[in-house]
Amino acid sequence: MIRICKNPKPPLPFVNMSQPTIPKVETVSKEDNLTPIPESIPVSKMEVLMRNLVGSEEGVTPPVAAPPATSPEGSELTMSSGFHVVGGSDFGEHKSPTSGSGGGKLTLVSTEWMGSKCQGKMGVTGERICTKDKEVCPTKAHQTNKTNELVQGHLCIPGFGSSIFISPAVSHKALLCLDGLDAHELLGQNHATEEWIRIFNQVVLSKECHDIVAAPTPKSGTGVPSVFREGLLPLRVNTEFLEDDDEEEEIPTIGSPSLPPDVFLGNATAIDSLEDGTLRSILNDHNYKFKQVATDSRHLLKSFQIQSLMVTELRSKVESLADNFNAHPLVEELLGHRPEAFRGLSVWQSVEAAASSTLGESSPGIEALAAAANTLFGKIKGLEAKVKARPAPVMVQPASHTGGLQLETDQLVSRLTIMEERERQASLTLPDTLSKLGALERGFAELRKQVFGNSVFCFNGMHFGSYQDVLTHLGDSLPGCSIGWFLDLHGALSQIGEVFYEG
Amino acid sequence: MLHASARVQSSALETTLMGDMKCRGIRYFYDAQMGKKGSVTPDQGFGFRLSTMEKFSGGNGAPERAEISSHVQRLVSSIQGSITGTDICAQLVHNMNNKTQSQKEVMLPFMEQWHGELMMQCNCATKEAWTFIGQCVCAMLDHLTPPRILVSHYQEWRTPENKARIIWAMMQVHIRMDEIIAARFKSHPTITTVMSNFIMKTRVSETVVTDLSKKIKDAANVSLKVAALEAEFKVLKASMKKK
User: What is the CA radius of gyration of chain B?
Assistant: First the structure.
């Protein structure tokens, strides 16, 4: 059986925690017929959303410190806008959602505190941390398994022994801003863990607290926390809640029968079908809050997108400005400094003024130049006409007697010069030519030997390889000689014993 | 010949030279008999004047070697005496005559030297060795003949071109003779050809050796037969004494 206590307009009763108007977070026994939370609703993200709302005023992004989705002993966490403690069997008996339930004062997480404490994770899922001093804590596992989920400036609920719960946690500054709540007094009180959770629920669900820690507008902060965005986007808010904005809130009656699952999904029809008016009003109020949160989330998303566009545009403008700034010296170097005469005028005005003054000065010169050109063309035409009218000139040859002798003398001198040049060249080339001729003759003789082999008769430096050689070498002496003078061995032996006057 | 030369308006030297152009062999070397024309066959070696080594070297009377040298010397001297002028042709004539004499001086001693080598080193008989040398000299002189034969048919040898051709033919003879001398006679192809032919003709064939071995065996059997006959003769002689 679940009993959700909700005050639609809480009068900030935190001054006296014992007042009956304080909304209560009650526990139901395990044996009661508790409707399970539909899996489609991410409970942990809901809590993250709430925590960000709580800490958004400080502009600090609180880390995700999700409590265990389910209790270890089969109890289940019900979905609501506050923190719910599931456990004890009787009403008023608050038990820790974990095995580390205890009591004590709230712990303000500060830098000094974090630097001096152990902060080792405790519990099955690490939902608690050790608050012993670093030098005192004997647990070796804490030295290597420390938490990083603590948020500075948040108040944490005490747990069993020397431990505190990481979640839930409430911003200390947010509490200070709430009217009618003495945060310092709250810090000095001792309560059980479940009691602290209930108090936190009252703080979070209060209307004033919601107004203070409402979702920041695009102008209020530097941006949407990433964790919030991450938790927001997957969040599926049922739009049917919007249709029930005008419905009257009714406080559900405690002890009403079990609720259908659609009630927790925000189904307006299912809520209207409830007979208990109080419960219906509470649920409607919850739907309204969910709708408001979803709307705010959409606004935040849109504003973030707008801001992104604006930042991009601004960045491009800055870049263009930087380019212009860099190009300014070049333009100034190219154009030069503006003359004093054009000071106070725009560029085009200056150009126009300069052009008008230049044209006004140059136009007389151009006209004078054109007149001079026309005069020249006229003179040229007149000269051409005179030349055409004059008869062709007769070529007269300078054929005087003295001139002819001079011409012949010049020709002779030139010929003599040419011959002297040739002789000089011949005298220069003669030794080379003779040596070349000698080499050619020697080469010819060697070649002749090679052609005729050994059939060469050598005599007095002459080589006879054929009868032509005989004719060549003997030359003029050949007709005066007698072939009878020539002798060889065969002829000599043949003539042995013969007598001239024989036969 | 002298009158004929005068009749054709040529010198006796020219006529003799051109008359011997067609001569294949040397008559003085290869005449078969005294007073008769005709030469010995090539296989017979030298003719009757040089039939033996003794006639050549002068073992029996005047040596033919000296006779040949004197004849050549006289011929050269007669030519030298007829040369007029000192032009290039005269110089060439002197050169060729000297060459002829030197070639003769090389060839004749070689004939005698080679004969001794054949007898001493090859165990050849003097006749056999001299015949072989006669064959070699004949082949050598035949090797000198072709250039001469090419110009032997010229009837007009007074034109410069014909003179040149004839002179060139005699130059070729000198060239060939110089080649033979440079090859030390034995290594020249003409001599080696004659040598191989002589060896093949005078070789001992296998059949001759076989026949000779048979004859030797028969001669060995003769001794046995002689012993048997001597034994029979002793028996007959003893029987005659008894009778």
Answer: 28
Q: What are residue A22's phi and psi, to 5 degrees?
A: -70, 130
Which residues make Cβ contacts (< 8 Å) with residue B201, sequence separation at least 6? B43
- pLDDT score for A248: 40
- Give yes or no for residue B173 having a pLDDT over 90: yes
Check pLDDT > 90 for residue A193: no
Residue B178 and residue B92 share a domain: yes
Torsion, Cα of B39, B20, B15, B96 (10° steps): -140
Both B190 and B94 in one domain: the answer is: yes
Count of CB atoms within 10 A of residue A305's CB? 10
CB A193 within 8 A of CB A103: yes
- Does position A394 have pLDDT exceeding 60, yes or no? no
Q: Which residue of B has its CA nearest to A471?
A: B164
A500 vs B contacts (CB less than 8 Å): 1-2, 12, 16
Residues B226-233 have a mean pLDDT of 92
Both B187 and B243 in a single domain? Answer: no
Q: What is the dihedral of CA A30, A34, A37, A43, to 10 degrees?
A: -50
Nearest alpha carbon to residue A71 among A105, A36, A33, A45: A36
How many Å apart are CA A297 and CA A224, to the nearest integer?
10
Rounded average pLDDT over A91-115: 65
Q: Which of B70, B79, B92, B106 to mutate: most A Cβ within 10 Å?
A: B92
Q: How far apart are CA B134 and CA B30, in angstroms?
A: 9
pLDDT at A495: 85
Beta strands (DSSP E) in A376-474 are 457-459, 462-464
User: Looking at A176-185, A260-269, A440-449, which range is the least confident one?
Assistant: A260-269
Amino acid (one-letter) located at A167: S
Residue bearing the bigger pLDDT, A180 or B38: B38
**Residue A35 pLDDT exceeds 50:** no
Segment among A235-239, A321-325, B56-60, B73-77 with least mean pLDDT: A235-239
Closest residue to B12, CB basis, from A478, A491, A500: A500
| B152 lies in the same domain as B239 | no
More confident: A19 or A406 = A406
Report chain B residues whose CB lies below 8 A from the CB of A463: none
pLDDT computed for residue B181 by the predictor: 92
Q: Cβ(B166)–Cβ(B151) under 8 Å?
A: yes
Specify the number of domains making up chain B: 2
Structure tokens at A82: 């506050």
- What are the start-end ranges of the H helices in chain B? 2-7, 12-19, 27-30, 53-57, 64-82, 88-121, 126-150, 160-182, 189-202, 206-242
Q: Say if residues B24 and B10 touch (Cβ distance below 8 Å).
A: no
Within 10 angstroms of residue A250's Cβ, the number of other Cβ atoms is 19
Residues A276-280 have a mean pLDDT of 81
- Are the beta carbons of A492 and B76 closer than 8 angstroms? yes
| Contact check, Cβ <8 Å, A478/B89 | yes
Encoded tokens for A317: 């403008």
Residue B11 belongs to what domain range? Answer: 2-202
Residues A352 and A358 sit within 8 Å (Cβ to Cβ) = no
In this structure, what token pair is assigned to residue A125? 């899922």
What ipTM, to 2 d.p.? 0.84
pLDDT tens digits, A164-183: 888 778 888 777 777 667 77
Q: Note whether B189 and B224 are same-domain residues.
A: no
